[in-house]
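HUMAN: You are asked to prepare a plain-text protein record giving the amino acid sequence and the backbone structure tokens, both parts labelled.

ASSISTANT:
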Amino acid sequence: MKKYQELLKRIESQPKVWLITGAAGFIGSHLLESLLALDQIVVGLDNFSTGSRENLALVRDAVGEARWRNFRLIEGDIRSPEICYSACKSVDIVLHQAALGSVPRSVEAPVASNDNNVNGFLNMLVAARDSHVGRFVYASSSSIYGDDAQLPKVETRVGRPLSPYAVTKYVDELYAGVFASCYGMNLVGLRYFNVFGPRQSPDGAYAAVIPKWIAAFLNHEPIQINGDGTTARDFCFVENAVQANFLAALVDDPNAVNQNYNVALNGQTSLNELLGMLRDRLALYDAAVLDMQPEYREFRWGDMKFSRADISKAQRLLGYQPVWPVKRGLEETIDWYVKRSTAQARSERKSSPPIPDARLPQRDDAAWGLA
């Protein structure tokens, strides 16, 4: 953790221009908030297909108006090569988070998944290469381990992908390796394992399990578990993912670049255990949730039964030391959703207007001295 604290001081003392694709998304907005808090200049690229303007409004409120002025938004799509090039212009570091996530979504719409996650990724690589970006850090996924049964998951061993989404992330890693060898680019892939935290959307058919269950508990709605509840994941609080991104972005060791890393805790929590932790914490706010029982249904196609990460490579080469265990991360997340739910209820009772969209100043290269 000492190494990471030193890195944060280094970032603050040596400002850079960062590009976050998917800046209005769950992880992207946390990266944005952390960078603005460190007085960095940040360009955001988002088409708002899965990200939200409310996330940006929350970041603005968190960092204050003075720091918010260091953020410029490009509202556009990574499927456009021109948009990608415009976003990469005069940027030092790219944190590429934009993607069409969700295994079930990719099973239902494989073409859209490929178009966003492979073609869009390739567009970003080309734009970063042509713009001479110094470092390109991108979001990969634990889904690429596929049907490999070995635990914990080690970066050098992957199985056959079980979904179109997994294929797209595997292809991204292959492209990154080719661009490193052909063009001398500096890239780092981060294989996220079930990242969770505040601002993760609980809505829609493809919502992640933690925000979806929290919302169900708060609204006293049915809670559904795919399978018998023994399915287990290496759940990782979002602040650990932020740490991994910053370490990957600025690591000096040449042996640490052009590598892929697991981003997780090297832990394993079953869905039944997760449900119990959520229920116990939420009972502090609403005792009625203690009587709520889950509905078990058929195991979902494309999912891995068990997942746990070996994080020794990230620890050794990046200095990654996750400090947020699952229980503490869940407490932080639940408390945030409860406060948000309470604030929304008060707003509705007062017939107040909804939370306004963030003021999103468009990028002005001349004003920033980047033209």
